[in-house]
Write a structure and sequence with these properties.
The complex is a heterodimer of chains A (113) and B (112). With 113 residues, chain A is mainly beta. Chain B is mainly beta and 112 residues long. Chain B has no helices and 11 strands. Classes of the chains: A mainly beta (113), B mainly beta (112).
Chain lengths: 113, 112
């Protein structure tokens, strides 16, 4: 059972544009929602994370929007750059003292000049 | 500062063999988790250890086992390797187990 659904599977955005990746979850016990960026041959790197008590969090060009009632959250990358080309994973975790992250299936983002 | 380090980076094993993967967490981190990432998919949780005790276990067969040492480093062991065990094995560490998790670069295991 896939508990975190991520879309789209791949995304092509022009340089300077806005990249938007969406995730939906089913488990209402999830209490922490991080986004990870992964380059080929590397491990995932934590990008930004949010807890459900806020609806939006911004760090530089990266923003998470969170809709608790719809059980959806999204990553927005403003002014997308070629260096942002990577695979992005949303994830979720139950905050019960364990570190189990449930990941989405990933979005391969390509920024074209 | 050193991040999470994993060894080896690449490994080729024959079906039926045993493999041991190693992970050193970030200094000061007491929790280590292991994930399996099959090509084209998101990481899947295998184990978490905190203060040398198992805190969580994912849906993996008993061929998979792990342990954590007094210095908080960890080993993942896989017995009776199958072709389907070919994947990138990731180790993540965090301070307490429910704080931010930082991943290593992974060990690419190929079973032939």
């Amino acid at each position: 059972q896939q508990q975190v659904k991520q879309s789209p599977q791949s995304l092509i955005v022009q340089k300077g544009g806005i990249s938007i990746i969406n995730c939906a979850y089913e488990n209402t016990a999830f209490d922490y929602f991080p986004w990870y960026q992964q380059f080929p041959g590397k491990g995932p790197a934590l990008l930004i994370a949010i807890r459900p008590d806020v609806s939006e969090k911004k760090e530089g060009r990266f923003t998470i929007s969170f809709n608790k009632s719809a059980k959806q959250f999204s990553l927005h990358i403003m002014d997308s750059q070629p260096g942002d080309s990577a695979t992005y994973f949303c994830a979720a975790r139950e905050d019960f003292g364990n570190e189990k992250l449930t990941f989405g299936t990933g979005t391969r983002l390509t920024i074209i000049p | 500062d050193a991040g999470v380090t994993q060894s080896p980076t690449h490994l080729i094993k024959t079906r039926g063999q045993h493999v041991t993967l190693r992970c050193s967490p970030i200094s000061g981190h007491k929790s280590v988790s292991w994930y399996q990432q099959v090509l084209g998919q998101g990481p899947q949780f295998i184990f978490q250890y905190y203060e040398k005790e198992e805190r969580g276990r994912g849906n993996f067969p008993d061929r998979f086992s792990a342990r954590q040492f007094p210095n908080y480093s960890s080993e993942l062991n896989v017995n009776a390797l199958l072709l389907g065990d070919s994947a990138l094995y990731l180790c993540a560490s965090s301070v307490t187990g429910n704080t931010e998790a930082f991943f290593g670069q992974g060990t690419r295991l190929t079973v032939v």
